[in-house]
């Protein structure tokens, strides 16, 4: 069954119910996406850090908060799955409703506040996935965050590295969700440096028997020029492995209907697209392409993904567009990326990374 036939039914439900139902459906093996088998993946395979991504399109954090449906998500064609945000203790998050759709603008506002079942269950689910023989192809990122009642953020991030760091292909330190009080303050340069150094120490301590998982930091799109410059230079100095750009925005563009725009929380989907692409562009320039970037925000077709790659992203992720277009979108983006890169004369997708910067110079 095609997603366009399912969508009207799902949209009669509150957004969070539809999401829970999707998780249940994925768990039970149901997939509305027809599997295409005629895509030539060789030009899309991406080697980054020591990891082999089967393709550069991943599912962003927040969809699989408890690491419950990693294998089914890889089965839809995603090259990587970022699970979480996981917090040390279970917590219920903000009162419902807390996810709002705006189909006209293909946008979502959420103020979830990191609801989740906590790291213990997350770890059990992850181990269950990792023990599958053979392990399904694809890369697993673990996105970590702090509990709402934690006054010492570093303690939670260190604990999470201790608990699950060695199981990760890569780790994302989330300091950019707008729905946990004080979280975004960790993006201030001094706090940022202290926190990330502490997390890197924890990684050396607890992941030393393995090739340490790359450590990425996920940032907000709502950073001014000075903040972007400070974070870029701090990131280079500390030596993080990657940046995820970006999380949701607090902006409310004029085109949004008033009722929707009045909801508190982070805005994602199409209205975030250009802003996040600009931030990717800025950080790629500020870091001279030395820190790999995963680009995310408003991607709803291959052109959007390609624009982020040309702005400087080595990999891309999406979430909101899955709600509006369904899982068929994933393979449509793969095929579209191949078409776009071939039209530009590239033999491999990696050749397009940062191409917009060269176009600017010529
Ligand atoms: C309902 C919802 C929940 C989210 N939860 C998280 C989260 O737990 N951690 C995180 O880092 N980002 C979270 N995000 C942000 C996404 O990972 C992504 O950065 C953002 O939505 C922009 O991408 P998109 O426009 O493709 O959705 C969430 C987004 C949505 C819509």
Provide a descriptive summary of the structure in words.
The chain has 362 residues and is an alpha/beta fold. It has a single domain (37-361), classed as Aldolase class I (TIM Barrel, Alpha-Beta Barrel), CATH 3.20.20. The chain is 39% helix and 16% strand. It has 13 helices and 13 strands. The chain has helices at 3-10, 15-27, 70-75, 118-130, 153-164, 189-206, 225-238, 258-261, 273-286, 302-311, 320-325, 328-343, 355-361, and strands at 46-48, 51-53, 57-59, 80-86, 99-102, 107-110, 139-144, 170-174, 215-219, 242-245, 266-269, 293-296, 313-318. The strands form 3 sheets. An 8-stranded parallel β-barrel has the order 3-4-7-8-9-10-12-13, surrounded by 5 helices. The protein has a 3-stranded antiparallel sheet with strand order 5-6-11, with no helix packed on it. Strands 1-2 form a two-stranded antiparallel sheet. It is globular, with a radius of gyration of 19 Å. Bound molecules: flavin mononucleotide. Flavin mononucleotide binds next to β6, β11 and α11. Flavin mononucleotide is lined by residues 60-62, 65, 85, 99, 108, 110, 112, 143, 174, 177, 218, 247-248, 268-269, 272, 296-299, 318-321.
